[in-house]
Structure formats: structure tokens, C-alpha cells
Amino acid sequence: MRLRFFTLLCLCCCWFVSSEGETVSCSNIVSSGFRSDNISIADFGGVGDGRTLNTKAFREAIYRIQRLTRVGGTLLYVPPGVYLTEPFNLTSHMTLYLAAGAVIMATQDSSNWPLIAPLPSYGRGRELPGGRYMSFMHGVGVQDVVITGENGTIDGQGDLWWNKWRQRSLQFTRPNLVEFVNCRDIIISNVIFKNSPFWNIHPVYSSNIVVRFVTILAPRDSPNTDGIDPDSSSNVCIEDSYISTGDDLVAVKSGWDEYGIAYGLPSSNITIRRVSGSSPFAGIAVGSETSGGVENVLAEHINLYKMGIGIHIKTNSGRGGFIKNITVSHVYIEEARKGIRISGDVGDHPDDKFDPNALPLVKGVTIKNVWGVKVLQAGLIQGVKNSPFTDICLYDINLRGVTEPRTPPWKCSDVSGFAHQVSPWPCSELSSNQQGSCANYS
Ligand SMILES: *[C@@H]1O[C@H](CO)[C@@H](O)[C@H](O)[C@H]1NC(C)=O
Ligand SMILES: *[C@@H]1O[C@H](CO)[C@@H](O)[C@H](O)[C@H]1NC(C)=O
Ligand SMILES: *[C@@H]1O[C@H](CO)[C@@H](O)[C@H](O)[C@H]1NC(C)=O
Ligand SMILES: *[C@@H]1O[C@H](CO)[C@@H](O)[C@H](O)[C@H]1NC(C)=O
Questions:
Q1: CA of 86, closest atom in ligand 3
Q2: What is the pTM of this model?
Q3: Handedness of CA 275, 208, 389, 249 (dihedral sign)
């Protein structure tokens, strides 16, 4: 029994992008971090009746963990029940442990929801100018935080926020469900995330982040409910998870136009594996906010159903930045509007101060072993006119379409690279002669 309460801390995983065969996993974990100190939200007056507001209980329990530091940190136990609360900050050296049947539920009263400053790499809130609402669970500058348990639920009750967004009655950018800003050594595992007001899990300016064995759910028509968005973060490992939301399942980002360029913090060493799910947008996405650069991304063993786009790498003029060394392999796609899209004209701008001559660099994208059925259009690869996409390598891809005689299977422009065993055969811009980094194909 005790074993399951051991908190596993991932301190030294090898996150570098592996070549096929020598699969590294984020379960290469150091088993330190057993929390000998265990407090329960009930000790702080927490009541799981679904009606009592538990804001004071959560904030006091976390304040206690912060002030009375114990060797090995403290586990905050949330027993079965529905705990309604306003948003709260997380602190270092803590485990938030949701028992089976525990639900931490966000209040729908947004009048008390604190506002915080925009992220410097975005210059403003992502959807509206000015500040933004703090995330439901928010970590700033913390380390050694674990959110885990027996698959309890963190419920954002997002429908109120979605409706306000639809009615255009929001004044500020909606809250994420969980955000870590400037944090390190974070594990999120065995938790269900439900109905986030906005993005679900957002690590930004952070490193050493593990997300595994999570389920993320939001209705297909819920606006901007991205699953996991590593943003200007490095050494992020996401695996063994199911994500079904209204927007991209995983989207790697790094800031927005002139603000992201000035901040200049890339996302690097991102591993995504054994993730499945469904979305009207993309399964595996890079972008569109990539102004700090994105490099060394490996996504493998991905199963996607009823998708907008299977794999979407997206940027725009004005973004600047770079997208380099991206590998996506072993993907199964069942029903999608498009299988693969790599595009240089996607996404909006923060304001009119962006520099239209800040062109993105896209170089070294390998997509291989993709099998798709009921895919309306195989691919769209459209580079930027004065910054063509190079070393785009497609190997062993079979995207079976629904007969749509007027849609060409592939559309390409301003792109060069290599294609081998791709069906339907892609556009002539991709050569059948190995070249550049595509020559590494074996
Ligand atoms: C923590 O305490 C709760 C009761 O407050 C108990 O149910 C749980 O098993 C304890 N967890 C650990 C790891 O000791
Ligand atoms: C990414 O991984 C490489 C190879 O392991 C390592 O050299 C580099 O420092 C890592 N980058 C970051 C930002 O940690
Ligand atoms: C969260 O922490 C910040 C400091 O990092 C503090 O200014 C803010 O008041 C806290 N918010 C809540 C709701 O506790
Ligand atoms: C929790 O869910 C994961 C899948 O995300 C599953 O592998 C695991 O067995 C579940 N754990 C419990 C205690 O139900």
C-alpha cells in the first residue's frame, strides 16, 4: 500500500531526441521525493460537498507548506468529494494529491478571479489586450511540485467562460487550468483535467516538466481549450495520455511576434509519446506563436481520431523565430480534414507594431511512418515567400482519402525537401533525391 504513495521525482531523465529504437522514456525517474509530511485539506476546513467555497482552506494549507518547510516536502491530500474553490497559487516542495473521487472544482464566479500581468513574451493577454486572469492553479518560480493521485479530477467549469467568450463580453484573457511560470522539476500525473476555461496545462519559461498518465477532456466546440502547451520551456516530456478538447491537443510555443522575439526564450527538447485523442484542430502542433524559436521536438506513437489536422506546424510573417529539428513518427490518423500541414501564414498578431519583415525560419522537419484513413487532403506545405521551408523530409506516409476529386492531395509552395514512399505522391517541390538533413534517412 505504501508504495503507491511514493512520489516519484524526475530529476535526471534523458530528454534528448532519440533516434528510433533507443526509446527513452520520462519514466527514467529518480525515486526521491517521498513526502513524509502529509496534511489533508480537511484539516484546514475543507468540505467536499460541492457547494462550500474552499478557497481559504487551499490557500491556508499551501501557505502552511510554504512557511513550515519539511525535509522532503509536504503532501496535501484531497479526500473524495467535490471541493469548490477560487484559484490558488502552488508552492515549492509540495504534492497535491487527489484521491480517487476527489474533484477540485473552479468556482464560476469570475468577479473575484484575480488579474495578473501579461506574459512578457506575449506583451498582452493572448486573446485580449491588457492583463489576464490568473490560472486556476498557478505556480510562479516554484520547483519540485507534483500534481498526482488516483485519477481525481481538476474541473475548470469552463462553460461560463466559453459563453462569455462567445458573447464577446470578456474584458480580459481567460484563465488556464494549470500554469507554471519560471518553474522547474514539475510532475503532473494520474489526474483528469476537465472543462478548462482556456488552455489546460501551460508550462512557460520552465524546465524539467513531466506530464504523464493524464486525461484531458473538454467539449469539441469549447473555444481554445488546448491540451498541453509547452511555451518557451525546455526538457518537457509528455507521455501516455489521452486528450480530447476543442483545440490543439499538444502545441509547442515560444512567444508572440515582437514580444516573443525580444524575450528570445526558445522551447527545446520536447518529447511527446503515446498520446491519443480527438480535436477539430491539430493533434501535434508547433506554433503558431514561435517567436522565441522551437527546436528538438520528438513526437512518436500518436493516435488521432476525428481531427481537423493531424500534424500542424504553423508560423507567420512577423513571428520571426525558428522551427528546427522537429521529428514526428508513428502516427495513426482516422478521419481528418488534413493529414499534415506546414504553413507560413497562420495566426494573428498581438498589435500593429509587429515587423512584417521578421520572417520565421523553418528547417529540418521529418515526418515519417504516418498511416491515415479517411483523410480528406493529405497535405499542405506552404512556406514563406522570402523564407522558404527547407529540409522537409517525408518518409513512409500513407494517407488514404475520401474521394474528393476537386481537392488535390497535396499543395506545396516555397518549400524544398525529400519524399520517399509517400502515398499519394506529394508535390514536385519535394524531391526523391536525398539532400540536406533529409540524407540522414536510413
Ligand atoms: C495522508 O493522509 C490521509 C488522511 O488524512 C490518508 O488517507 C492518506 O493515505 C495519507 N497519505 C500518505 C501518503 O500517507
Ligand atoms: C537539450 O538537450 C541537449 C542534449 O541532451 C542538451 O545538450 C541541451 O543542453 C538541452 N537544452 C536545454 C535547454 O536544456
Ligand atoms: C499568488 O502569488 C503572488 C506572488 O507570486 C501574489 O502576488 C498573489 O497575491 C497570489 N495570489 C493568490 C490568489 O494567492
Ligand atoms: C489512472 O489513469 C491512467 C491512465 O491515464 C491509468 O493508467 C491508471 O491505471 C489509472 N490509475 C488508477 C489508480 O485508476
A1: 13
A2: 0.94
A3: positive
Q: Domain 1-218 adopts which CATH fold?
A: Pectate Lyase C-like (2.160.20)
Nearest to 314 by CA among 284, 286, 338: 286
Q: Is 248 one of the annotated active-site residues of the chain?
A: no
CB contact set of 151 (below 8 Å; sequence gap of 6+): 98, 100, 190, 191, 192, 215
Q: In sequence order, what are the residues at sequence separation of 6 or more whose Cβ sits closer than 8 angstroms to the Cβ of residue 441?
A: 393, 395, 418, 420, 434
The pLDDT tens digits for 370-398 are 999 999 999 999 999 999 999 999 999 99
> Residue 439 — pLDDT band, cuts 50, 70, 90?
confident
Fold type of domain 248-442: Pectate Lyase C-like (2.160.20)
Q: How far is CA 125 from CA 298, 384, 394, in A?
A: 29, 27, 36
Domain 1-218 and domain 248-442, same fold? Reply is yes
Q: What are the phi and psi torsion angles at 403 (to 5°)?
A: -65, 115
Q: What is the pLDDT of residues 97-111, one digit of tens each?
A: 999 999 999 999 888
Q: How far is the CA of 100 from the centre of ligand 2 (A)?
A: 37
